[in-house]
């Protein structure tokens, strides 16, 4: 089993990274309450280079349904506004010359369903990544078998690979279930 341990460790490590990535993507899907993390994926054109919004402005949530963005340079207001509109988050920025305010509207039933679909799509990406890691691990086990790994050890390793994969797919499902519940709770 010693020859396959690095294969299984690598697979498990990368499956955990897929779960971590899924968690970070699910945080960006809003569930009706304003949060600075909703704007994590927004990139602003900062003197010709695309820069994360959080690196060019302060982002606060003074109330449950309001996000306030204070650019570090006044000249960035238009660029930030454009970046938010272009990000397809369904948010409408309002600028008063100094600050940008975003009112987070309560979610309609249709919008909630769209967000659930988006969450499920992220979950499917994670599952595909996990399954690809399983396939790669099984291919590496087969290569090791050709290089002299006993057949029973290879079979055991493949069974372990499947068990680990099932565990990680279950984790994805658990995250999706929690996010769907969060989104659909009015």
Task: Tell me about this structure.
With 186 residues, the protein is of the alpha+beta class. It has 2 domains: 101 residues, Ribosome-recycling factor (Topoisomerase I, Chain A, domain 4); 68 residues, Gyrase A, domain 2, CATH 3.30.1360.40. Helix content is 57%, strand content 15%. It contains 4 helices and 6 strands; from the N terminus they run αββββαββαα. The strands form 2 sheets. A 4-stranded antiparallel β-sheet has the order 3-4-6-5, covered by helices on one side. Helix 1 packs parallel to helix 4. The chain is elongated. It starts with a helix and ends with a helix. The model has no long low-confidence stretch (mean pLDDT 87).
Order of adjacent strands in the largest pleated sheet: 3-4-6-5
Q: CATH superfamily of the largest domain, called what? A: Ribosome-recycling factor
Output the radius of gyration. 22 Å
Which CATH architecture of the largest domain? Orthogonal Bundle
CATH topology category name of the largest domain: Topoisomerase I, Chain A, domain 4
Please indicate the count of domains. 2
Unreliable parts:
none
CATH class wording of the largest domain: Mainly Alpha
- On the 0-100 scale, what is the average pLDDT? 87
Largest beta sheet, briefly? Answer: 4 strands, antiparallel
Q: Spell out the helices and strands N to C.
A: HEEEEHEEHH
Count of DSSP strands: 6
Structural class: alpha+beta
Number of helices, counting only DSSP H or I runs of 4 residues or more? 4
What proportion of the residues is helical, as a percent range? 55-70%
Tell me the fraction of residues in β-strands, as a range.
15-25%
* Anisotropy-based shape: elongated
State the end-to-end CA separation.
51 Å
């Amino acid at each position: 089993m010693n020859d396959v341990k690095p294969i299984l460790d690598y697979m498990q490590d990368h499956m955990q990274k897929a779960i971590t990535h899924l968690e970070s993507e699910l945080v960006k899907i809003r569930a009706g309450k304003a949060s600075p993390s909703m704007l994590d994926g927004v990139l602003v054109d900062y003197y010709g280079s695309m820069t994360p919004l959080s690196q060019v402005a302060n982002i606060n949530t003074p109330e449950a349904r309001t996000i306030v963005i204070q650019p570090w340079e006044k000249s960035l207001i238009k660029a930030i506004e454009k970046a938010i509109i272009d990000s397809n988050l369904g948010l409408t920025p309002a600028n008063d010359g100094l600050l940008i305010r975003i009112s987070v509207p309560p979610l309609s039933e249709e919008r909630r369903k769209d967000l659930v679909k988006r969450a499920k799509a992220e979950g499917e990406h994670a599952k595909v990544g996990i399954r690809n890691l399983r396939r790669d691990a099984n291919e590496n086990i087969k290569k090791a078998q050709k290089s002299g790994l006993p057949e029973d050890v290879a079979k055991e390793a493949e069974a372990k690979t499947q068990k680990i994969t099932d565990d990680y797919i279950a984790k994805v499902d658990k995250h999706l279930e929690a996010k769907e519940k969060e989104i659909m709770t009015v």
